[in-house]
Each structure stands twice: as structure tokens, then as C-alpha cells.
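Components:
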Amino acid sequence: MISIESSIILLKDVSKKYSTDNVVFSGIDLEIEKGEFVFLTGPSGAGKSTMLRILFCAERPTSGEVWVDGVTLSSLSNAQVPYLRRKIGVIFQDFKLLSNYTIFDNVALSLEVIGLGKKQAEQRVMQMLEGVGLAGKTSHYPLQLSGGEQQRVAIARAVVNRPSIILADEPTGNLDLQRTEEVIMLMEELNARGATIIFATHDDRLFENTHRRVIRLFNGRIRI
Amino acid sequence: MTLAILCRRAFSDLRQNFCAQLITTMVVSLSILIFAFFTLLYFNLQHFVDRFGAELGLVVFLSEDTPKDRIPSLYQKLTGLSEVEKVTYISSEEAFGRLEKFLKDEKEVLEGVDPRFLPPSFEIQVNRAMFQLKRIKQLAGEINKWPEVSKVQFGQEWIDRLYIFSGLVRTIVAITGLLLLFTAAFVVTNTIKLTVYARQEELKIIRLVGATNIFIQGPFLVEAFLQGLMGSSLALGVVFACFRFFQGIEAKSELLRGVNICFIPWQYTVAIIASSVLLCVLGTALAMRRSLRL
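Structure:
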């Protein structure tokens, strides 16, 4: 029995199809509780990224209902979407950093959009960059950093405005083992501070020995 | 989202995309420059037609049998008309004297001619502020009906031609303005589309972190405002410099003295700047519609 009260993310009979013969998934029921850290896995093309895109409103489901932090996404107007996105931090495999912005400005962007004061924002960004071990590289540009460092900047940007939900779409896909472990540790830390995390990956090794819940997407259906 | 953040982002974008911004501003400036030159030409022509028309005035010829004691009352009647600024009575003898002066060395052709053969007349100078060709025609018609008046003459043909010409110039200015407006709108919209396209990825990321449409669109609109303002001001500045240059030539030239060229009235100058700003801002808003979709 799934309920809206206890869960921060709730999907009820959700389907996504681009055409009649291109069905990504259908009849998905899923509940994620506040503070949970779940792995979303499945082969390439299983719909992991599409599911995350639906959660941060980059796409709309074809049918079914989605609730995020108590908000029914189908009732959300386009103008309200940015306000929901501020509650969600998104991390991508390709980092999606602005190459013409410094590391500091990339992270500060999340605070600038919510209109935080300059001083307060500066303080928070510096704190965040210290937390991910990049305090000495604030004036660097993304392309001057290694892949692991870029991913840490992306994580810093995603969490600097303290979102309650973090969606990570293959965040370790471009990283070596050591950097992957660093990212996982950062995620564990964020989760320990109360953030709900959905970590999408096709790499089974990341959750082999974990006690975390693993949601498997296969052939357009969820297999627990 | 404060205005300060919006302006800061706009100025940062201006610095980063200086070339594209400069090209857009130059396109706006050139379009406004051509339009402003035509407008200047039109206003000077209109000014000339009005002045010329007012200076031509009316000549009211009286019948030869008009008793001399009727002249003062006719004078009073004419000066009482609201369109009339000044009335001068020219007797037959004065008219004859003028003719002699005009003929200079050939005045002997007038030998033996009765000095009163020319009819007495009133020369009327029209009130410039009230000058309107239609009204002058009406006035001439009214005066012509007076029993003492034999004929009312004014440079109707000249004024008619000048009015037709100035109407033609006005049409050309309007069509040119419209075409230039479309050209500028097209170029501005497409330059901005290209800028937006080049920064598509950046806008996507900004949207991802929760930016509202005003946060995304705002800096572009501020840039467009500045482009419109600077482009049109620059163009009008060039036109004004040219105007001062022509004024200098006019002051030095004997032939042109008294032409009294005028600049575009300030209301129109403000309207040109406002239209330019509006055009750029609307063009930007239109160009960005697609990129604001989720």
C-alpha cells in the first residue's frame, strides 16, 4: 500500500511512451521515503534517466500520477516548475558545468537563482567548496579541473541550496574507481544530513555490498 | 530575483558576448540612421512648405470703382479676421511705382500710361500659427464674395504642388520607416536567436537549478533595452551632427541664408528612441519564446 503522507516521492501507475512502439516504461508504482538512499538500476535504455527527468519536470509522464515532496506534478504549471526544482539537486554523468563560469560562480548559480544575498551566498559557496575539497580552486574554470573534481563541483552546485531530494544520474559514469568512491562517500554524507537520494547507475558494483534499497528497471517494469 | 542581480548578469553577458552585442547595436543604429535622415528631410520640407505658404500670403484686388472712403472699413474688416496677421494697403499709384521699380531700365514702356491703371489692393500676411492650405483657400473664397473685391490671388498652384510633394515624401518616409523597422526587427530577432542558440546549453543548466523565466530572460531584455537605447541615440547623434554641419554651411552661404533648416521635433526624437527600444525588447522576447519552454 503506497501513501502520499510518508513518502517524499510517489509514482502511481506511471507510463512514459514516445510513440506506440517506443514505450519506455508503463504501470510504474514506486514510493521513496523521506531520507532514503536508493539505487535505481537497469541496463542502458531501461528508462532510468527518463524517470529522473520526470521527477525534476524536464519531461511529463504519458499517464499516471507523480508526487514530489507533496506536490502533484500534473497540477504543476510551467511557472511553478522552477520552485519545485529548487527542492531538487540534480547531478549528471557529464557534470553539466558552465565552462565560461569559474568554479565559484558555477556553485553560486544555484543560490543566485533563489535570490540569496551576495555575502550569504559567498559564505555558503566557500563552505560547500571546502566540504568537497576544492576551496583552493574557486577561481579555476571547469576545464582546468580533473573529471573527479568537476563532478565534485557539480555535486556542490546541486546541494549548495540544501535541497531535500538529490537525483544523481550516473554520476560516476565518467570516473575511475577512486573518484567513484569519493562521490559515493559524498552522497552518503549528504544522506546522513537528511537528503533523500536516488542514485541511478548501471554499474552493479556500486551497490553489491550495500544495505540500500535497489530499484531495478527492466523491460519497462520495476523488479525489486 | 532582484533588479541588481538581473543587471549584473546582463552586464556580465555583455562583456562575454561583446561582438554579437555590438553587431546588433550597429544594425539598430544603421536602420534608425537611415530612417532619421528621411524624417529630417521630411520635417524640413514640411517646414519649408509651411513657411513658404505663409510668406506667400493673399493679395486682394479691389474693383476700380471702389470709393476711397470704403478703404478704411475694408481694412478694419480684414484685420479683424483671425487668420490675418498683417494687412497692407497698396494704392493704384503705389502699385504703379512698384511696377516702374521692377522694370528698371525698361520703365519707358509705361510712358503715357495712366498711373491709376492698376487696381488698388490689400496685401495680407497670414498668421503662421494658423496656416493651413485648406483654410487659406476657404478664406480666399470668402473674401472674393465681397462686392468691392474683384479678385483674390495667392500662390495656390505652388502651395498645392509643394503639398503634393511633401505628401509624397511623407509616404516615402513612412514606407522606408516600416521597411527598416521590419529589417531591424528581423536582424535583431535573428541575432538574438543565434546568441540564444549558442548559449542553449548554458540556459538549460540555469533552468535546471531552478531559474525562473524572468531570471533567464531578464538579462537578455536588459541587453535589448540597452541595444535599442544606444543604437538609436547613436544614430540620432550622427543625424544631429550632420544637422549642425548643414546649419554651418547655411550660415556661410548667401544662397542658403534664410532657409532655416530645422531638426526633428523632440517629441519625434523621443518616439524614435522609444520605438527602437520597444522593437529590440519585443524582438528579444519573441526570439526567446522557444528557449523558455521546459
